[in-house]
């Protein structure tokens, strides 16, 4: 009969945990020292200049690809998000301005998950307030729900060349049960080093909008549309993935009977990266010897689809346990 394997004493295991905790803390402090040197090398105090959504998206994808064990991916992702956002804030302080009109709890969850509690959060009722705030404070970031249309075609304010632009789509890692899964656009005055053009966001105005153009567009790109009473038209925000020519999109609209009045670049973001629930469950089985590995799916060569003409129902997140603050200026 095989003798039972002798287990290490609890005191030894707890000592190992304490050693790892101390090592993690020392590594965080070492990271801070490197950030201090980075600030000196860059020699900049320009607010917001340290925000790099392309690099951050890549960091989160690499986190997913190497993640394993019993620690939930949600926890690992949230820890990394707080580390990244906080050190970005240390380099160049900024505030996050969020549109609460689509539902404050879900938007607050999204903002805190991705930017932590060190970065100030300012709430607004409507995209217009967010855009006005970041236009006045070049280093700040704005968050607007991807399908928000209650305030009209808010993205047309991004059309001027010197206006803020869409620079990211959050969450960087998408999954059906994400704890802060409300899809949002991050908007800011982009630093040249921060621009990523995997998916270009076009503000397109058309006349002759109707079911036929909507159906033609749905087969090519994801879009949000707001009706425009003039010329039976619409203002569209269209996500055009890399590899899909804009002429293909506008040509499909024209072939379906619409007239394209204008096309203006409103920003861009990294390709969407999805993790399926099955992959998440398989990942938790690694330590049980099942040989599975967490896998992420990055949308690259194929096209993103799923046209939305109006906003989707608001995402229901866990929200805050305490009373809601005044959204016109909530500093958390």
Can you tell me about this structure?
This protein has 8 helices and 12 strands. It has 332 residues and is an alpha/beta fold. The chain has one domain. Helix 2 runs antiparallel to helix 3 and helix 6 runs antiparallel to helix 7. The radius of gyration is 22 Å and the shape is elongated. It starts with 9 loop residues before the first helix and ends in a 34-residue tail after the last strand.
The tally of structural domains comes to: 1
Order of helices and strands: HHHEHEHEEEEEHEEHEEHE
The number of helical runs is 8
Distance between the termini: 61 Å
Strand order, main sheet: write it out: 2-1-3-6-4
Q: How large, in whole angstroms, is the Cα Rg? A: 22 Å
The overall average pLDDT, rounded, is 81
Low-confidence runs: 281-332
How big a fraction of the residues is strand? 15-25%
User: What is the general shape?
Assistant: elongated
Q: In this structure, how is the largest beta sheet organized?
A: 5 strands, mixed
